[in-house]
Amino acid sequence: MPQYAYRAIDQNSQMMTGVLVADTPNMLERRISELGLWLIEASEHTPKQVAAQATKVDVTRKDLVDFFNGLATLVGAGIDIAESLKVLVNETTDDGFQRVLEDVRLNIESGVTFFDSMSSHPEVFTAEICNLIKAGEHSGSLVEACKDISEHLEWVDQLMADVKQATMYPAMIATAVLGLVFVMFSFVVPQFSIIFDSLDMELPALTKGVVIVGEFCNGYWWAILIFIGALFAFFKFGPSRIPGLAMGLDQYKLTMPIFGEVNQLLVLSRFTHNMALMLRAGVPIVEALNLVAGVVANRVMAAAVANAELAVTEGRKMSEAFAEHDVVSPMVMRMIVVGEETGRLDSCLEKISERMDDEIPRRIKRLFGVLEPMIILTLLGIVGLVAAAIFLPLFSLMSGIG
């Protein structure tokens, strides 16, 4: 259904702007009039314009959690959706989110479904959220759908908080290590190199190596910084422009030393969590697989999910398709098989999801608990190496004098 960006005036002569869904411009004008507004101008909102508008609103997960919790409470108490949204608009402090909710409310009051109203704001409500709402509307379990969305967003927020907390200290140490190494090789070592040259003495191999590295860093520090920036840009923007590179990097993330297992757990947790959520809400399995492929955040897993979607469409079992991909762990595979055999796939996926939700924070804390001393030992090793390279010639000089 077409979307129209409009400008209108309310009964208090206040200017209002937004997006409404309507079949034709005449129907849009009629709906605006029914809402007690006077239409000034309207233009059809193309998908590109929607995408452009998506960058203008930044709603946090906490805001979404509060919104869906409040919506579940109000709708559960028997208040209709439009009136519930009116209450929530007044409670929302973010201006951008207020405008979005007001648009959704106006669309609902003009006869558009909650799902279609939310879908006109992809910058706030993802396809995953919209389809859960759609399933809730169709099955008459909108309150449960809102609660599921809220719990899911809280889980994602908590997981990101755990990852951030676990990585903050090691990241600070790693940054300090790199900074110290750069300063030592760029400024400290070259100064001692001048002293060694003035003494005209034979330097140990270790000292020669450190001096060469120091001279390179001192003379080409700008090239090093450019290389680091170019490398960062390559890995940030390259995957979106080179499909083969993107797939290769995602494959490496799952098999890389130390972090590979945690990355695989995160990917499988996203899959099982979202899949269970959608199946429980009544989303058909083919549609659920199609949606989940876009939220697993790994192209290797997305390819496996797409293969499973094709298998189910052809009348085969989802487990048969996943068996062809190494990314799905044996435990997850077993739970999928059990779910298919018992007809309780949503329940089995939910159980394995809960297990991984508990396991991931422990794995992350354990991983960075091991990395911290390794980083410190690396720092001490580098400092000790440079110190040895500097003091060895001095010891030799003093021995010769003695």
Give structural notes.
With 402 residues, the chain is mainly alpha-helical. 76% of the residues lie in helices and 5% in strands. The chain has two domains: 3-125, Receptor-associated Protein; 148-402, Receptor-associated Protein, CATH 1.20.81. It is built from 17 helices and three strands. The protein has a three-stranded antiparallel sheet with strand order 2-1-3. Strand 1 and strand 2 (15-21) form a beta hairpin. Residues 50-55 have low confidence and may be disordered.
Report the CATH architecture of the largest domain. Answer: Up-down Bundle
SS-derived structural category: mainly alpha
What proportion of the residues form beta strands (DSSP E)? Answer: 5-15%
Main sheet characteristics: 3 strands, antiparallel
Radius of gyration: 29 Å
Order of helices and strands: EEHEHHHHHHHHHHHHHHHH
| Overall form | elongated
Helix content: over 70%
Report the mean per-residue pLDDT as an integer: 80
CATH topology of the largest domain: Receptor-associated Protein
Query: Order of strands across the widest beta sheet?
Result: 2-1-3
Number of strands: 3
Count structural domains.
2
Runs in which pLDDT lies below 50 for 5 or more consecutive residues are: 50-55
Return the CATH class of the largest domain: Mainly Alpha
* Through-space gap between termini: 93 Å
- Total of helices: 17
CATH homologous superfamily grouping of the largest domain: Type II secretion system (T2SS), domain F
